[in-house]
Design a protein that fits this description.
Layout lengths: L1 H17 L4 E2 L6 E2 L15 H14 L18 E5 L8 H14 L3 E8 L2 E8 L2 E9 L5 E9 L2 H16 L1
Antiparallel strand pairs: 1-2, 3-7, 4-5, 5-6, 6-7
Length: about 170
Amino acid sequence: MRKARWAAAAAGVVLLVAGCSGAKDDKSGTSRSGSSAAPAEAGGSLDAAAATKEIVDAAKAAGFTEDPSEGLPASLERCAVSWQADVKKAADPQKSYEGTLAALKEGGWKQARELKQQGSVISSLEKSGWTLRASYHGQAESFLVISFEATDNSAQCEKAFNEELAKNKTS
């Protein structure tokens, strides 16, 4: 079960790294293709530890606590970050989700695209060669999952994601 979950997550990450070509920008309605990740910031590029800290700080400031989940495969720990909110402990999950996104944007993450469909919102933000996918799925009254996943868009990490996918296909 765990391998199947990571295979699906890695496939999603590969799509993020590839830029999800053809997505529409909600603000302008124009089509965007490819990734437009910002260059590394002065003082160094973002790494997994810094991305984790930014997500955790923004989410906690917005009223979320973490719902611990399975860790990443060791081969992906430097390339990806995954953080899931414990929505049952949030006073207003929708407000906390929006507050987390606002704090991340204030911290330099740039909105790339957003998709809203049938109770789900997926926002992609970019910073220093990383893409962050913030997901809000479901409804607070029944089933709700809110997560924040960031991936390094570098060629080395794309290779690591593809290798992890290949491992999961054969097992």
